[in-house]
Hints:
By secondary structure, the protein is mainly alpha-helical. The chain has one domain (10-177): Jann2411-like fold. Helices cover 47% and strands 11% of the residues. The protein has six helices and six strands. The protein has helices at residues 10-15, 32-41, 53-75, 81-91, 111-126, 160-177, and strands at 18-19, 26-27, 97-101, 104-108, 134-136, 145-147. A two-stranded antiparallel sheet has the order 1-2. Helix 4 crosses helix 5. The longest helix is centred in the middle third of the chain and has 23 residues, at 53-75. It is globular. The two termini are 34 Å apart. Residues 134-176 form the Zinc finger CGNR domain. This is RNA-binding Zn ribbon-like protein.
Amino acid sequence: MDFTFISGNLGLDLAGTVGHRRGERIDLLATPGDLARWTVAAGLLDVQPAASEGDLAEARALREAIYRLASAARAGTSMDAADRATLNAAARHAPAGVLLGERGVERGGDLRAALASTARAAAELLGGPQAELIRECEAAPCTRLYLDASHRRTRRWCDMRGCGNRAKAAAFRARQHG
Length: 178
């Protein structure tokens, strides 16, 4: 399965590497290689970094902390101190480097730098005014979190081409056969 970056925030996109959280979970970060591929697909690094099982465990812990923190922000409940500590520990590292090279933008660093950039994006979101825009996709069984930047703040699906299209097609079929 390919990675998608439709959440409106890199931290939420990392959290989105688990699908169907309340059902049969789909983990897109199954191996250290998957994690390395994600850093390039996310535009954090130009070259896949070395990644170990320990790195994968650290990235998964960050991913789950971001998901729980964003869910708390969405629900208007207090954020867990341990989850904040996990996020802040990752964010304290130097972020991925962005330079202007002869052929354009060059992004470099190691896996820790890529995770630091991701954690910083999540911290900016969760600690700022956009946290109130966090929504969860209404399409079953999707559990993806995203930012609702629509004009009226009435967006219902994480992505209109996927979940939204399926939901609208199902509603149309129900009306035709109901």
